[in-house]
């Protein structure tokens, strides 16, 4: 089915200057960028986005990393976009990520792992709405 998913290029990958390289992976796989912006997350924005992880031992480090520099956030649209984006990213831990995935190529550790992608259609809808107003989404008309 035609789906949307939410994606973040994290501060480590922005610092490595690979935004375009990562966008190329999305487009080559048939995903379309239908919304996009760069922002430097506040502590409150990062804590709110990752609220489901607030009790985990890595939460403080996660918020600190995600606010350490600008991120690129985007909405990707395409057939099975949630699963396709997760395949492009590879496993959360780069040590387990398959060759040719974003995490294998660009991530240094499970904490600094280059990108985020929604894990299901429901979380995608919530994550998109957290950062984008409806009118910021630009479905293709041609
Ligand atoms: P992300 O998909 O952005 O969601 C939460 C992030 O927490 C995850 O990617 C990892 O970068 C980070 N993280 C750090 N340690 C862990 C862990 N043990 N399990 C899952 N996520 C972790």
From TrEMBL:
Chief location: cytoplasm
Protein's GO biological process: CTP biosynthetic process; GTP biosynthetic process; UTP biosynthetic process
Superkingdom of origin: Bacteria
GO cellular component: cytoplasm
This enzyme's EC code(s): 2.7.4.6
CDD domains reported for this sequence: NDPk_I (cd04413)
Catalytic center residues: 116 (pros-phosphohistidine intermediate)
Keywords: ATP-binding, Cytoplasm, Kinase, Magnesium, Metal-binding, Nucleotide metabolism, Nucleotide-binding, Phosphoprotein, Transferase
Reactions catalysed, as given in the entry: a 2'-deoxyribonucleoside 5'-diphosphate + ATP = a 2'-deoxyribonucleoside 5'-triphosphate + ADP; a ribonucleoside 5'-diphosphate + ATP = a ribonucleoside 5'-triphosphate + ADP
Cofactor(s) required, per the database record: Mg(2+)
Any one GO molecular function term: metal ion binding
Residues the entry annotates as binding ATP: 10, 58, 86, 92, 103, 113
SMART domains attached to this UniProt entry: NDK
Chain ranges of the Nucleoside diphosphate kinase-like domain: 2-139
PANTHER family recorded: NUCLEOSIDE DIPHOSPHATE KINASE, NUCLEOSIDE DIPHOSPHATE KINASE DDB_G0292928-RELATED
Functional description taken from the UniProt entry: Major role in the synthesis of nucleoside triphosphates other than ATP. The ATP gamma phosphate is transferred to the NDP beta phosphate via a ping-pong mechanism, using a phosphorylated active-site intermediate.
Quaternary structure and partners: Homotetramer.
Name of the protein in its database record: Nucleoside diphosphate kinase
Source species: Paraglaciecola hydrolytica
Gene from which this protein is expressed: ndk
């Amino acid at each position: 089915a035609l789906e949307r998913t939410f994606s973040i290029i994290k501060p480590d990958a922005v610092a490595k200057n690979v935004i375009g390289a990562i966008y190329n992976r999305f487009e080559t796989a048939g995903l379309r960028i239908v919304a996009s912006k760069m922002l430097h997350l506040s502590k409150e924005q990062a804590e709110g986005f990752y609220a489901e992880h607030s009790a985990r031992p890595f939460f403080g480090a996660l918020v600190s990393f995600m606010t350490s520099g600008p991120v690129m956030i985007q909405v990707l649209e395409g057939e099975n976009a949630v699963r396709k984006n997760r395949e492009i990213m590879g496993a959360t831990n780069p040590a387990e990520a398959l060759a040719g995935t974003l995490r294998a190529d660009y991530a240094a550790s499970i904490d600094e792992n280059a990108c985020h992608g929604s894990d299901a259609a429901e979380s995608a809808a919530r994550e998109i709405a957290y950062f984008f107003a409806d009118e910021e989404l630009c479905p293709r008309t041609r």
